Amino acid sequence: MKHSTSQLVEHFFRHESANLVAVLTRAFGIRRLDLIEDMVQAAMLEAMHTWKQSGVPDKPAAWIHRVAKNRILDALRREKIHEKAISFTGQSIRDQESIVDQWLEEEHLPDSLLRMIFVCCHPSLERKTQIALTLKTLCGFGVSEIARGLLLPEETVKKRIQRAKKSLAAANVPLEFPVDDRLVQRLDVVHDVLYLMFNEGYSTSLGSEPIRDDICEEAARLCHLLCESAYCLPVTKALLALMLFQAARFDARTDEDGAVILLEDQDRTRWDRCLIMNAQSWLAQSKTDQPTTFHLEAAIAMQHCIAPSVEATNWETIVRLYSRLMQLRESPVYSLNRAIALAQAGDTCEALMQLESLQSREEMQNYLLLDCAFARIHELDGNTQSAIDACLRALSKAVAPHEKELLERKLLKLTEKR
Amino acid sequence: MPKFMFVYRGGHEGMEHATPEEMQQVMQVWMDWIQGGVEAGWLLDGGDGLKPEGAIVNADLSVIDGPFTESKELVGGYSMVEAHDLAAAIELAKGSPMPQSGGTVEVRQIMQPGMEGS
């Protein structure tokens, strides 16, 4: 089977480059990150040129590992630095080579990747920088892909990553696991980064590039890696459950043309039952005396996933879960969603009062979803004209074409009702 | 049926900055093309890639290392195909991923014993 690509799993190049960067940085130090990335890139190119005609070798991962390792060792030797200085851990280059070989073995890979997660989520970096660096280093995305995924100019992403690498190198941050009481703090940051990374990819208000699904997938993959490790807390499992519940509804969220389909119009048979069951199992394992926001958000996502329809959804439970969320953390977004759940549960009066109190808040002035929530509640209340007015208000704020399109469809539906 | 050799040149321009995902996509296109040719029967041998390093030995036995200076002149690989005539082989070559990636395919009939050059 000279020309088979079957051994090449999806995203093989991306994941192998992440594996290599993690292991080689662990071996040669964060200061060498630029050189390591160049050598890994060169190894990937060599693989592409060789394999595209000659076919994929039996063990493609081992092939790439060997080439990349040799390239970095050659480059270090060329630098004519004294052998001792080459090695981050103070070993000779030959010892270093066998250590690298060992770390590149499949069962040892997660260890290096997890160490790298803690580096990318280093508290000295800004949150947005942590996300960009994680996508670059641990997911193998290129700058252009990250820029497209996060809807940022390429130059911005490039600068963020460069600055991050510079400051990590200056501090010579080692690839080690945090210990004692620092571990929980550092894990908190990692959880937040993975959560935000997932949200960046998930948010439908930002368009539906395929790359955005990949970002969600990567956040879930890294979270899963953490869940399978010794550094897993109950909250890690709750976060994974949350991601999987949301991911289960991915395919049903957009139609063939990529237009957004609202929850009420989604074909629930297209939801991924397997993922939902998987998520339920993680949520069950995440049990703890002190549920976090991730626990509660996952519980809400589950309520949607197990409901046969919008009407048959257990809205009372969802309202209760939002109330508990608001006790943990005050957030207008929680209040807004609680109001919608309240209206769905039948209490449109209380729901409207809640929304009106949100309206006065400054950060909600240009928040499109507030008007959408008004529209929904007026619609549930049978007050079509007010619903239309709210939709028009939202339309005046909508920026992205697909948001406009969605609101226009909604308006048409409401006008027909009138 | 006449046999032909496809000689691939260039087509790597700009790939130095390709992302891993883009590289995988390029490879996939080639793999699909080769697979298609093997299944249809006209691709006798997908051939091999050639390493960029090499040398040229001249008539005066002087040696130039690195066969070409420009990457677009560089022979990157070859394949063996079967076609009714040169025109048919050229059509097959047009279908290869090479022209799309900015490279060229040289199509040459292989001379076989007892066969006219035709």
From TrEMBL, chain A:
Alphabetized SUPFAM superfamilies for the sequence: Sigma2 domain of RNA polymerase sigma factors (SSF88946), Sigma3 and sigma4 domains of RNA polymerase sigma factors (SSF88659)
Residue ranges annotated for the RNA polymerase sigma factor 70 region 4 type domain, each copy included: 116-168
DUF6596 domain: residues covered: 186-286
Annotated ranges, domain RNA polymerase sigma-70 region: 30-80
Entry superkingdom: Bacteria
Pfam families on file: DUF6596, Sigma70_r2, Sigma70_r4_2
Family annotation (InterPro entries): DUF6596, RNA_pol_sigma-70_dom, RNA_pol_sigma70_r2, RNA_pol_sigma70_r4_t2, RNA_pol_sigma_r2, RNA_pol_sigma_r3/r4-like, WH-like_DNA-bd_sf
Biological-process GO terms, alphabetical: DNA-templated transcription initiation
GO molecular function (one): DNA binding
NCBIfam families per UniProt: sigma70-ECF (TIGR02937)
Protein name per Swiss-Prot or TrEMBL: RNA polymerase sigma factor
Organism this protein belongs to: Gimesia alba
UniProtKB/TrEMBL annotation, chain B:
Pfam families reported for this sequence: YCII (PF03795)
InterPro entries: Dimeric_a/b-barrel, YCII
Highest taxon above the source species: Bacteria
Ranges of residues in domain YCII-related: 21-111
Family: Belongs to the YciI family.
Protein name as annotated: YCII-related domain protein
Source species taxonomy: Bacteria, Pseudomonadati, Planctomycetota, Planctomycetia, Planctomycetales
